[in-house]
Amino acid sequence: MKLQMIGCSHHDTAVDFRERIAFSSDQVPSTLTRFRQTFPQGELVLLSTCNRTELYTTTSDDGSIDRDAVVSFLADQHQMSPDDVVAQMIYRSGNEAVEHLFTVASSLDSMVIGESQILSQVKLAYDLACQTGSAGPLTHAVFQAANHAAKRVQTETNIHRRRVSVPSVAVGEIVPEVFDSLVGKHVLICGAGEMGEETLRYLIQAGANDVTILNRSHHRAIKLAEMFSCKHRPWDAFLDEVVQADLIVGTTSAPDPILTAEQFSLLQTKRRDRILLALDLAVPRDFDAKLDDFNSVFLYQIDDLQAACQRNRHEREKEWPRAQRIIHEETSRLLSDLNHRATGPVIKRLREHAQQIKQDELVRLLPKLRALGGEPAMEKEIEKALDRLINKLLHPPLSSLKADAAEGHEKGLVKALRELFRLGE
Predict the structure, then answer these.
(1) C-alpha angle 172/178/179, rounded to 5°?
(2) Confidence band, pLDDT 50/70/90 cuts, at residue 363
(3) Given pLDDT bands bounded at 50, 70 and 90, which one contains residue 280?
(4) What average pLDDT does this structure show over 173-191?
């Protein structure tokens, strides 16, 4: 059994495909449960964020949980064809899957290198898998090690210094391109989840003093507004708020755009062609892409932040080698530990098997020795001689087994020893 990952991210797929393949927070628990029902012996941790959807699963010796099985399962969840899924998803297994997870958790694979949000998202994905029972021994070991690796990167490098998230790039680099100041600008936040809250923090730090929060669950909007001393309105006031807005931020999990070009066209007269900056940080997208056709609208979606993110990547390049060394060390350490864990039971059974043979022979031999007048000291010497014989016979195969374990069981010696000595599973 080994770890495998199938997924996609902003690196290799467009936002429209990520929208189709993403799982909302409400969908994740039921998906984990269905996976467990479909593959009772399998393990799954499902990571789905704005920028990536990744399924970390275990393979099975009988091939029932291979790449094709996971692809079919994933396609079925979204009513897509397996061919469409496999054509745009990346597959990694074994060492590559483990190192990829460590890289993701350490925020070296993020759109904004060093953002703090991804590690908490990885932890949440693992916690949900634990709660639903879809995590298991291998995913427990791997995700706990991923957390440790990410913590080392945080503490031993400067790659997370002045950590930058997607909202901070949007507020810190995009907003100043349109407005000299946010003071007196009417800001509308759509969505009261983590992304909305994080964006709000940066907006207030940037000087925003006229912020209104809307959310379909109005009580969440009220709660967030009270935390930051902002205003809140019910969701049905959305279009009225758009008329007044200078800056609108989309962070909802709505399946369809909350603001279409047709809707905005009807509001143009009331807005009197005032400039509107629209920051769409949601996946699926909150704002119709056709809004960018209006001369008075500056629309930025998550994929539009790539240039700013690339600048941040260059600034942190000098820290990459050190961070990657840490990830490589932690990956090697985990794989070595997992490989040796796999050999431990086999070594134990082999030694027990040899000891049982020794005891059987002593039971047969010692009575005959005593009948011939053998001394107790002689019995002890015979037993020691048998122990030495066992150790000498077992030393070469066990040394080879340990060496094979350190190399990832490439030679298959564990399986060979099980079959040769009939040690069972």
Answers:
(1) 80
(2) confident
(3) very high
(4) 94
pLDDT band at 22 (very low <50, low <70, confident <90, very high): very high
> Which residues are annotated binding-site positions for substrate?
49-52, 110, 115-117, 121
Candidate from 53-57, 106-110, 379-383, 403-407 with smallest mean pLDDT: 403-407
Binding site per annotation, positions: 49-52, 110, 115-117, 121, 191-196
**What tokens appear for 344 in the block?**
């431990």
DSSP of 92-116:
EETHHHHHHHHHHHTTSSSSSTT-S
Residue 308 pLDDT > 80: no
Mean of all residue pLDDT scores within the chain:
88
More confident of the two residues 381 and 399? 381
Every domain of the chain and the residues it spans: 3-162, 166-306, 389-425
Q: What span, in angstroms and rounded, lies between the C-alpha atoms of 210 and 136? A: 48
Q: Are 3-162 and 166-306 the same fold in CATH?
A: no
Check residue 306 and give its pLDDT. 64
Mean pLDDT over 301-322 rounds to 77
- Picking from 155, 39, 138, the residue whose alpha carbon sits closest to that of residue 98 is 138
Query: Would you list which residues are annotated within the binding site for NADP(+)?
Result: 191-196
3-162: CATH homologous superfamily?
Answer: Glutamyl-tRNA reductase, N-terminal domain (3.30.460.30)
Model pLDDT, residue 120: 92
Instruction: Report DSSP letters for 73-86, one per residue.
Output: HHHHHTT--HHHHH
CA 91 from centre of chain: 14
With b meaning 16 or more CB within 10 Å and e meaning fewer, what string describes 62-78? Answer: eeebebebbbebbbebe
CATH number of 166-306: 3.40.50.720
CA nearest to 343, candidates 398, 281, 261, 276:
398
Higher model confidence: residue 40 or residue 61?
40
Q: How far apart are CA 163 and CA 117, in angstroms?
A: 10
Nearest to 25 by CA among 220, 217, 254: 254
User: Which whole-number Å values give the CA distances from 177 to 167, 189, 344, in the listed order?
Assistant: 15, 19, 61
DSSP category for residue 284 = S
* CA 325 – CA 89 distance, rounded (Å): 27
* Residues annotated as catalytic (active site), given as ranges: 50
H-run or E-run covering 254:
none
